[in-house]
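Objective 1b. Sequence-to-structure analysis of AhpC/TSA family protein.
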Amino acid sequence: MKINKAFYGGAILLMALCATSCNNKNFQVNGTISEAKDSILYLENMSLNGPQVVDSVKLGEDGSFAFSEKSIADNPEFYRLRIANQIINVSIDSTETVTFKAAYPTMAMNYEVSGSDNCAKIKELTLLQQGLQARLNAIAKDINLGVDAVENSINQELTAYKDNVKRNYIFKEPMKAYSYFALFQTVALGMQQALIFNPRSNEADIKVYAAVATSWDTYYPNAERGKNLHNIAIEGMKDMRIVKARQQERYIDAEKVQSAGIIDIALPDNKGNVRKLSSLRGKVVLLDFHLFAANHSMERIMMLRDLYNKYHAQGLEIYQVSVDPNEHFWKTQTAALPWVNVRDENGSDSQLMRTYNILQIPTYFLIDRNNTLVKRDAQVKDIDADIKALLAR
């Protein structure tokens, strides 16, 4: 039987078009952002190496936009819509069409989304995170709270937030894009951004990362994001094993430190002058071991500054020992601080750390006017009250 040449040619063309279509799956992100005429709206891919611009458009009077892009992975991928510092987070699964409606400059907090359950959940998580940030800011600014009360209140807020997100989002559907998104949410503490779920310092958080990683292995085998989660969880486990080993080596009951006198410290300060801890005899001293490169450093520095401002004129001094490995970074961070800042170049492996039984960074001690070590942080319930009592002696 003869085959019509026109039919044969058409069939070949149809197969070629099908192959091209199958290999070039596109997703659509469209909608309107009002009150943003002449603003540049960016569509950025949130790659593992950071944000990368995919496309952009200059918005007109009505604020309408439409992006059509090729899907770059078989697993959910993450993007964001951005005007200046206003951001809407977007997840894309294959060939979705997702529509957003918002107004500038409040688009990050107030927007509508349709076409994607993951994007709707990401919006819920974003609003929850913004509420958490507002509560943390209010706690940090409350002048009626002492340093310990601020720290305890912040920890309570973070714990409650994490319990809610684990129960109602991550553990509920760990294979979903919004669960992956939740792992990398941050809050500002002081002047620094910190992960809410931090697998480098929290054993329970490692399990959360591992749960999502395992789920992604099942639903999206060989996905780079899944491999990345596994690597993060494994590194976190290594870090926690090191911390536990050091704690077992160094552990001494905190009660044994009380009224033990001090072991003198003599280290160069940020101007190159050797400063001795014993030279502060006659003052009440807060001896603080600190790492400026840590996530919560700025929050702690703000708390110390508050204590210094309140009690320095009455006889309080702060002697702060940095274990930062980068000397230039440390000098930059301490240039404007009014108290004694010294640095141990041996960092967390120094003999000084072992001598003072430092189980974790940061750690502080209270020393009375006679150079006697009175308490360490584990024994302090209200630091303001303890400082006042020492100053009154």
